[in-house]
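Example 3.2
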Amino acid sequence: MATVRVRAEGGPVSVEHPEANNARITLKPGQAYAHDDPIVVAYPWAFESDIEEASSTPGERRNVRARTA
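Structure, written as tokens:
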């Protein structure tokens, strides 16, 4: 099961729980959730993956040196 964390930018965020009637929860930066949690599905903009991207995005520079044997 993949894990995602609440984004650090912007600090804590209060959102309405999608499965509880008018219940609000606070998403604290760094807090971990399962990728299929109803909160993550309802508010994907608030989360980021624990897995680092293997390739760079267009325009992104990676400072990596080739290994020499």
